[in-house]
Amino acid sequence: MSDLRDLYQSVILDHNKSPRNLRRPADANRSAEGRNPLCGDRLTVFLTVENGVVKDAAFEGSGCAISTASASLMTEGVKGRREEEVFKLFDGFHRLLTSDPASPVEDAGLGKLTVFSGVREFPVRVKCATLAWHTLRAALQGSGLPATTE
Amino acid sequence: MKLDAERLRADFPILSTLARGRPLVFLDSAASAQKPRAVLDAMQRFYETSYANVHRGVYELSERATQAFEGVRTKIAGFIGAAEAREIVFVRGTTEAINLVAHGLARTTLGPGDEVLITELEHHSNIVPWQMACQERGAKLRVVGIDDRGDLMLEELDKLLGPRTKMLALAHVSNALGTVNPVREIVKLAHERGVPVLLDGAQAVPHQKLDVRALDCDFYAFSSHKLFGPTGVGVLYGRADALSALPPYQGGGDMILSVRFEETTYQGIPHKFEAGTPDIAGVIGLGAAIDYLSVIGLDAIAAHEHELLRYAGEQLARVPGLRRIGTAREQAAVISFVLEGVHAHDVGTVLDQHGIAVRTGHHCAQPVMERYGVPATVRASFALYNTKLDVDALVRGLDHVRKVFA
Lengths: 150, 406
Known about the structure:
By secondary structure, chain A is an alpha+beta fold. Chain A has 5 helices and 4 strands, in the order ααβββαααβ. In chain A, strands 3-2-1-4 form a 4-stranded mixed sheet, with helices on one face. Chain B is of the alpha/beta class.
């Protein structure tokens, strides 16, 4: 069962149990809805962006432990960052999750977000971890269309 | 005769394989059933000894293939109680069978202001084709609700069957909740109002004896792959007059009598619905699956599954935080549930580490999930090869899930 502990690391379990930034900020000026058609999960990401900087990030919705913890850690991780940095983080996170499970974990400025490296071993769960990020990107790009993991 | 599941398991090669290094506990037959060796062998043998295209060649091999293929049509007619073999149309699966009827209805009867009636229990495949047909013709899709147990609200059904209703389409057995609908009564009610009925039998056929004439339905759809046969084949039963009234679904070879650029004359039923080369070996496999089931006996299978369902219900009731979704008066061998504080997908991932295969998600029945206010459920479904040991493994697995997410 060692794989299972790689997937459900204590940080993930903690953020699933008590998600950070699970709220709808009154002053949010960007938002997007994300859907994962595989499981029917939905979540909304709210951002307050001022002068190209993400001042606040929050989310609403419920999902599996992986998707909830990912949204929670993501909102913590992008606060105070410039939009370009956030896009870079998205790319780094996406690369981490789709990399060969046997390859070493690249930090690429991800820091705490590397706890999701265990998801690589569970290809069907990758979308759970990336849903919040796809939604975040859609909110920043302001396309107004719901984001999906497809 | 009582069914010996332990002995039958040996007929299914996959059941002796490992999953995540553990003996496979397969509790997802409602999604697709595993295949007995008899089916695999029949297909292999057919390819090796009798394969050629059907309805075409004058040579001996083609004749033999055609005979085998048409023989399965006759066998299916007998298996489901149809009056004639020509009432059996081979399609790709339940989904295509429903699309065929919905498409035909849109091109013949359905007009602006007309209604098609479905239920809240339906699989997406018995929702979307009707939605498309209604959109195309300016007709309205109406939906009969279910109560908290997952039973259809029959009074509502009674009210919604109106003068504009052109079709009632509903599941014989619900895939998400296991509800067995009282279809005989429902068909009677609909027919009293002159409304034809299509039954989605994908979840019913593998588990109980079927008699389409006793049910008196106009159409009945099911898939081979849930019936221990191969994927890619399904059956649409239609009473001869009901089928004859539908236009062809797809155009092509084998469905015509004569083709000229000015005009084409179509074949009669069932061939006018079977354009192109069918999944010949798949049909042969389905025939072998029906033979296999017939030897065991559908009554014995139903009794075995009923006992498993009872046992599973009892054992799962002891799991703290487990809530069953769907507790209909009559239930097929499907148990849907949620575990407090743990998402269905996380349950599925932990169970998978124990070699246990369950379905997690919305089961292609999002309206049902919405009705119960849950995004997803865990679904364990049983077939003739499952035993109480599988249920015990599931309960142990759920204990571990609770530990991981404590």
